[in-house]
């Protein structure tokens, strides 16, 4: 996985033992397992936990061996009766529908990022993930006022894990955009031509290894520090574990006739070869242990062992693929020369890297490796294509979280056929029931697959898959398994063995009635006190986008609910008074608890918009929460806001306003807020906008695609200089900064007589006002 390639997943704490995702083949029956690398979890004896934890659903809290169990329920054999409707439906305007969809996409993508980068336990595949990001990017392009700096389209996800020291990357480790075939590669190339007004490019291509991205620092020729990518800005210091990799040079030598820089960074990919992966699994099979799922997850977990001797036993390998920062004169002017220099001073580099001068040859190279990828002794999931010239790379720059000068050509998913044993159901934070497939284990795309997502009941119905079917399974993006559809020919003579799936009438966790609105895909558990819903709400409340309280992961939140230590979000702040009960939990020590309490206390100072995100109000994501917090300023003002007041907030339509209004009118929610404010003393105000800057008092609208910066970077700059970013031009707008594709807002501005300027003119005006180009 190359320089910030999108799926360099990282486990947030050292994996000290292996975990398995399990399900029971019958009520009370034996556990069937598949390997996964999830975050290390406190050792909680399953016998001490209530049934909803022990029986569980997909992605439920761990038992003593780290396993997650799923509960079978008795489903009707006939069409179930009509379910209760959750609410009256009403028409939604297009702009508001777009805003609601953007908020939903951001929340969904951030959750998938957390599972991928922080837990190495993703629940959708690359293709599905890319589709979500692409949809969000398209919506933000179509509705520029919905774009925000904290959107998942603008940054790399994944934060440093607990257990290792944090390392600040001197230069960000970015993500890569994806292309899927010649046509999309040509679009990427044409953009380079348009941006640079030249076509004489050289490109370097090499297989995209499915491993873990790392940064290696050398000083005076000696290896002094190695770190993971983390969130692209901060990673984890895993130097001792990296030192166990034999192919990593501890000392490098100056090339013949040359010298070494005083210090420099080399970036690379740690991976586990197919041979070593097979060796490890043979050892585990001989000792009766569960097999590892795939080389990538095994490599990621191996690098996060507290005991470096365990890492050494895994026999990891390494390729370096890029020269990072250099103190002093850079030894190369191009990427290809830099790779040659790294090899000359002692680094292992990929001998398959090639340089091309036409985009047609690049496409041929990529297609060639898609056909012969299985011949390699390591897993690859695509080809990385980079502009060779460093000067051109600098000129092209970065947009959002992706360099313009590099892209990943992604391979299509591999497929296999297996038996669908049964369809089971999980419960999420909002009470949504999600079906998933329990499969006969099958090896596909370099991994043993035993479960696959089915998304929702409409998707199951559209696929027409039935329990007992032989189904086509693929690892989408070579990461997450999904069911493509049934093998219809295999049904002949087996019709009596097949069972049509129906969503349950009651929650598989708490047995509360299931609710469903006609015309919607989602089915809901009607019980607001469902323990899984509360556990998921705790995860959301403490998550990075909300109160950002590290240490409250999936298992911790589930355990707190299961042990009766937490009954509502406000109970989190009562945990310091329950110190003895918490210390009685296995896997939680005094030092860990003190750190947890300190983070709880610090979270009380978070600004209002983070609290609003954490409360989990429907349709209130980061953008809407900021708009509400900025408009009302205090929680008190928001709590007494009328429906008319809410509809007056810029960018909030009637449906979202109604949802927010009714949430605050609910007596249960009022009681929760009273406890958070009066007992926990959480902050109830928003950060004041910047004042006294060179744009103070000006409202500026930004639209279209920029050349030098991303639109969100321009908006952040405006805010930092005291200006206000408007959602749409009005007579009060000072001017509109318009890039490519800003037609609608540009037209509206011209109709209103508001000045429209381009990015270059905007920069000139900043300089005229005394801004220094930093």
Describe the structure.
The protein is of the alpha+beta class and 774 residues long. The chain folds into five domains: 195 residues, Beta Barrel (OB fold (Dihydrolipoamide Acetyltransferase, E2P)), CATH 2.40.50.140; 61 residues, Orthogonal Bundle (Helix Hairpins), CATH 1.10.287; 245 residues, D-amino Acid Aminotransferase, Chain A, domain 1; 72 residues, DNA polymerase, domain 1; 70 residues, 3-Layer(aba) Sandwich (Rossmann fold). Helix content is 33%, strand content 19%. The strands form eight sheets. Strands 4-15-12-5-11 form a five-stranded mixed beta sheet. Strands 18-17-16-19-20 form a five-stranded antiparallel beta sheet. Strand 17 and strand 18 form a beta hairpin. Helix 17 packs across helix 18. The longest helix is centred in the first third of the chain and has 25 residues. The N terminus is likely disordered.
Outline? globular
Strand order of the largest sheet: 4-15-12-5-11
Annotated CATH homologous superfamily of the largest domain: DNA ligase/mRNA capping enzyme
The CATH top-level class label of the largest domain: Alpha Beta
Backbone CA Rg: 27 Å
Compute the number of structural domains: 5
Overall pLDDT metric: 81
Gap between N and C termini: 31 Å
Fraction of residues in β-strands: 15-25%
Named CATH topology of the largest domain: D-amino Acid Aminotransferase, Chain A, domain 1
Helix content: 25-40%
Low-confidence runs = 3-48, 54-82, 87-93
How is the main sheet built?
Answer: 5 strands, mixed
Layout of SSEs?
Elements: E1 19-24, E2 31-36, H1 51-54, H2 94-118, H3 126-142, E3 166-168, E4 177-179, H4 182-196, E5 203-209, E6 212-219, E7 222-228, E8 234-236, H5 239-242, E9 263-271, H6 274-286, H7 295-302, H8 308-313, E10 317-327, H9 335-344, E11 354-356, H10 359-372, E12 380-387, H11 390-396, E13 398-399, E14 402-403, E15 406-410, E16 415-427, E17 433-444, E18 447-453, H12 457-463, E19 470-476, E20 480-486, E21 514-516, E22 523-525, H13 531-542, H14 554-562, H15 579-583, H16 590-603, H17 608-614, H18 622-632, H19 635-639, H20 643-647, H21 654-665, H22 667-679, E23 699-703, H23 711-720, E24 724-726, E25 735-738, H24 743-752, E26 755-757, H25 759-768
Parallel strand pairs: 4-15, 23-24, 23-25, 25-26
Antiparallel strand pairs: 1-2, 3-8, 5-11, 5-12, 6-7, 6-9, 9-10, 12-15, 13-14, 16-17, 16-19, 17-18, 19-20, 21-22
